[in-house]
């Protein structure tokens, strides 16, 4: 690391990047990529944080590490300092505050200020790149978008407008910037070079619900939303945004994982042993339920007799899945998970019969659902009504243990497909038993389920759609989740292209985990066949369709099923 000092700036040349840190204003120029605004805001429930004076940076050199502290006077805190930590390969930016408050949101790479020049308002970093890579699936499908387009990495979402961006919940918190204009297809990725921008934080510090990239008129900042659920007493330091050069966005995701692992903030792999049967082909009945629905709700068709018929048809044509997922809704209530005796009159015996055939059985679990739970075990709203199950509550954690003993012990099921982690109970007015929130509370939910399941059945398989490296210890397999439809121009996006994109994200974020390739919904029979052919090379194949495609009504022939069986035997 070579540092040259002038009256107005520090000039760093690390061999991997060049950075000019101003000595006269809160900014730094990362050559070719960004002009970093070193203003930050940490607003609270009661105070909007605005900087009203910035002081010259203080440089401390520690071997091959250079640390620049930018003290700032704040309207909300007794003290505030933005810190740049420069190593030969990385630049990390964070903000530290001192005082007391409940954090609302945090902005990095910009914030509200009255600068020493008397310029006032919201300041942002200048972005010299042309494209930004988004690691989470969205609708419209838009993997690399112009830097002028916003994005959110979050644990909150559904299919409503502006909310279909939590298919991975959470995704890796790693953006990547490209110097090339994104002008290819919806899942195309330009050649390098790239600049990765990832969030360095462990579970304990991930009490925010989402990271938003907010561009405007050539500038941008990052916003972390804490929803007034994180209290500070004394001092608090934000997660760091880490910049590092990369040859591709995939390498940027790998760097993100490596950074977390090296700092002790993420596990290297799953918490326990991988069992051979986990890698076997999967049949999930949801697609078949949807195809049979014909105006009814598909959840009415999670029935023992239908699953028997579908599995018999598959076996007749050479498809014998190693694992069967009984999907929504086999249970009377989502929250307490008792089998519905009308739909599954002999579930224990049915599972035993499948075991005798050499097959395993997973049960679908809707995360967060308060259905069937007492309000005192739930996150509640301002009226005291149950919004979501509360994993910070000891009573609910005990209930999870009882459910696991009942389903994995008494029924002898083999694990769970955990869905709807994106239905996080978001809101500053909501009340939980404990103090965790955001990504941290979701990890607490999955961690409670994971530990309770493994106590009952050590080889229980836990499937989630959470490809963030810090969630590696609460999942055995990462599901690529529901396929989307259209790009930003309203054109169809081939399902198999989405499969390849999602697989690349998952294996670079969590390379030691198995991947459930999913298979629903399919826009056509042709898309389904192309998807099925690609699945064995991209993870564990999962079959959702037996009789027809739900979106088109096209029939699935015996020859189709025999072809799938042949592809999956190779």
Automatic annotation (TrEMBL):
Under the heading InterPro entries, the entry gives:
GH (IPR017853)
Organism this protein belongs to: Nonomuraea deserti
Q: Which domain of life is it from?
A: Bacteria
Q: What is this protein called?
A: Alpha-galactosidase
